[in-house]
Write a structure and sequence with these properties.
By secondary structure, this protein is an all-alpha fold. It is built from 4 helices and no strands. Helix 3 (37-47) packs antiparallel against helix 4 (52-61). The radius of gyration is 11 Å and the shape is globular.
């Protein structure tokens, strides 16, 4: 499973930022970094408890690849 699919799953499950970062790094993936534009959008979506489709919309608006 790739990082984007795991992120999508964690967002749907309602994981917060801390748990999401821990889960990703525990599986050997890069965490979420606020200096990366795409990760910043995802972090804000998680912080605001947005559903996956809304986070994907924000990514599209920022001309970034969607999670799924």
């Amino acid at each position: 499973m790739n990082r984007d699919k795991i992120l999508s799953l964690l967002i749907v499950l309602g994981y917060d930022i801390t748990k999401t970062r821990q889960f990703l790094t525990g599986l050997g993936y890069n965490g979420l970094y606020a200096r990366n534009v795409r990760d910043f959008i995802i972090l804000n979506g998680i912080k605001d408890k947005l559903p996956l489709d809304k986070i994907n919309e924000k990514l599209k608006e920022g001309f970034e690849d969607t999670l799924c």
